[in-house]
Amino acid sequence: MSSLPAKPPIAAARWARIKLFAMDVDGVLTDGTVLVSSDGSESKAFSVLDGLGLTRLRDHGVLLAWISGRASGASTKRAEELRIPHLIQGRHDKAVALKELVATLGVERDDFCYMGDDDIDVGAMLLAGIGISVPTGMPAALAAADYITTLPAGRGAVREVANLILQARGVIPPHTTAPAARP
Fold first, then answer.
1. pTM as predicted
2. For residues 122 and 140, is the Cβ–Cβ distance under 8 A?
């Protein structure tokens, strides 16, 4: 098993600038598994840790966007629950979708980050001020990432990034990557 590429730390000032946190869905907000029943219905598992991180970001003025290569009712439902204002599905040209979104929102490059795990995310990751991947990302995504989470996809990786942004803004204490376990 090879180790993840070493990445230099990202200054808190860069995290504090983030006005838009855009991300892929499958393999970032979920572990990448899609369960399909014999009737054709699908389900996915989303982390409540990630959900709370996204809610906190939204409550502190960070815009949120999900850009997925596939359309999914489960993603739509979860986006509605979390009040994600920008849900873009069925787009494999994620860099183009992200360019269109940031142009519409008037967000500068250094003011948004993008989190992805696969080859089709690389263009969007390189477009962003901070490109982020998960430890299980494909080699191209890992190489393109400025930051690789320590927590896995669908198990707190998005929360880790949310906490970095909120820490940099002084909203939560430093070194908070997940809720502390109580004895």
1. 0.91
2. yes
Q: What is the pLDDT of residues 151-161, one digit of tens each?
A: 999 999 999 99
Strands 35-36 and 42-43, sheet pairing: antiparallel
CA 165 and chain centroid, separation: 12
| DSSP for the chain, written as a single string | -PPPPP-PPPPHHHHHT--EEEE-STTTTS-S--EE-TTS-EE----HHHHHHHHHHHHTT-EEEEE-SS--HHHHHHHHHHT-SEEE-S-S-HHHHHHHHHHHHT--GGGEEEE--SGGGHHHHHHSSEEEE-TT--HHHHHH-SEE-SSPTTTTHHHHHHHHHHHHTTSS-TT-SSPPPP-
Q: Which residues 6+ apart lie within 8 Å of 33 measured at CB?
A: 44, 45
Domains in the chain with CATH codes: 12-168 (3.40.50.1000)
Spatial CA neighbour of 31 closest among 155, 115, 130, 123:
155
Segment 106-129, tens digit of pLDDT: 999 999 999 999 999 999 999 999
Q: Are 66 and 25 in contact (CB under 8 A)?
A: yes
Cβ atoms of 4 and 95 closer than 8 Å: no
